[in-house]
Amino acid sequence: MSAERTLILVKPDGVSRGLVGEVIGRLERKGLTLVALELRTLERSVAETHYGEHASKPFFGELVDFITSGPLVALVAEGPRAVEASRGLIGATDPVKAAPGSLRGDYALEIGQNLVHGSDSPESAKREIDLFFPGLS
Ligand code: DAT
Ligand code: MG
């Protein structure tokens, strides 16, 4: 089995609501392994780089405001098809449409505060891991 790595963020809403353990527990129970973990509050420049693909979207300012609004937990998880596996655990971007049983489906209601980020492809994972944990991708 070849291992793949992905970047997961428990966003500020997840930290303030006390859901860090729930998110990490689900990743671990799925069989993914934690290889890095950090509580940090993002600089705007880091947030703008992380979400750079959305820079032209109308919600970009709110997105950066939210993701920098308080501490988040950044982690790297590893395992076979870690990107796809963790996107499945996280659920659809809109929490109202996210399947019950997924993290967003179970714990979120608003698209702007949807609890968790997970890289959407191995290429995104490399870029995002290099931003948060240089040398670990
Ligand atoms: P995902 O986080 O599922 O990868 P995305 O990359 O399309 O989704 O968007 C990044 C984040 O931006 C998303 O988690 C929440 C926010 N967002 C996306 N679409 C939005 C919208 N229509 N209104 C407000 N925020 C939005
Ligand atoms: Mg995305």
Automatic annotation (TrEMBL):
<feature type="binding site">
    <location>
        <position position="104"/>
    </location>
    <ligand>
        <name>ATP</name>
    </ligand>
</feature>
<dbReference type="InterPro" id="IPR023005">
    <property type="entry name" value="Nucleoside_diP_kinase_AS"/>
</dbReference>
<comment type="similarity">
    <text>Belongs to the NDK family.</text>
</comment>
<dbReference type="InterPro" id="IPR001564">
    <property type="entry name" value="Nucleoside_diP_kinase"/>
</dbReference>
<dbReference type="GO" id="GO:0006241">
    <property type="term" value="P:CTP biosynthetic process"/>
</dbReference>
<dbReference type="InterPro" id="IPR034907">
    <property type="entry name" value="NDK-like_dom"/>
</dbReference>
<keyword id="KW-0546">Nucleotide metabolism</keyword>
<dbReference type="Pfam" id="PF00334">
    <property type="entry name" value="NDK"/>
</dbReference>
<feature type="binding site">
    <location>
        <position position="11"/>
    </location>
    <ligand>
        <name>ATP</name>
    </ligand>
</feature>
<dbReference type="GO" id="GO:0005524">
    <property type="term" value="F:ATP binding"/>
</dbReference>
<keyword id="KW-0597">Phosphoprotein</keyword>
<keyword id="KW-0067">ATP-binding</keyword>
<dbReference type="GO" id="GO:0006183">
    <property type="term" value="P:GTP biosynthetic process"/>
</dbReference>
<keyword id="KW-0460">Magnesium</keyword>
<feature type="binding site">
    <location>
        <position position="87"/>
    </location>
    <ligand>
        <name>ATP</name>
    </ligand>
</feature>
<keyword id="KW-0479">Metal-binding</keyword>
<feature type="binding site">
    <location>
        <position position="59"/>
    </location>
    <ligand>
        <name>ATP</name>
    </ligand>
</feature>
<dbReference type="InterPro" id="IPR036850">
    <property type="entry name" value="NDK-like_dom_sf"/>
</dbReference>
<feature type="domain" description="Nucleoside diphosphate kinase-like">
    <location>
        <begin position="3"/>
        <end position="137"/>
    </location>
</feature>
<keyword id="KW-0418">Kinase</keyword>
<dbReference type="GO" id="GO:0006228">
    <property type="term" value="P:UTP biosynthetic process"/>
</dbReference>
<feature type="binding site">
    <location>
        <position position="114"/>
    </location>
    <ligand>
        <name>ATP</name>
    </ligand>
</feature>
<dbReference type="GO" id="GO:0005737">
    <property type="term" value="C:cytoplasm"/>
</dbReference>
<dbReference type="GO" id="GO:0004550">
    <property type="term" value="F:nucleoside diphosphate kinase activity"/>
</dbReference>
<keyword id="KW-0547">Nucleotide-binding</keyword>
<comment type="subunit">
    <text>Homotetramer.</text>
</comment>
<keyword id="KW-0963">Cytoplasm</keyword>
<keyword id="KW-0808">Transferase</keyword>
<feature type="active site" description="Pros-phosphohistidine intermediate">
    <location>
        <position position="117"/>
    </location>
</feature>
<comment type="function">
    <text>Major role in the synthesis of nucleoside triphosphates other than ATP. The ATP gamma phosphate is transferred to the NDP beta phosphate via a ping-pong mechanism, using a phosphorylated active-site intermediate.</text>
</comment>
<dbReference type="GO" id="GO:0046872">
    <property type="term" value="F:metal ion binding"/>
</dbReference>
<feature type="binding site">
    <location>
        <position position="93"/>
    </location>
    <ligand>
        <name>ATP</name>
    </ligand>
</feature>
<protein>
    <recommendedName>
        <fullName>Nucleoside diphosphate kinase</fullName>
        <ecNumber>2.7.4.6</ecNumber>
    </recommendedName>
</protein>
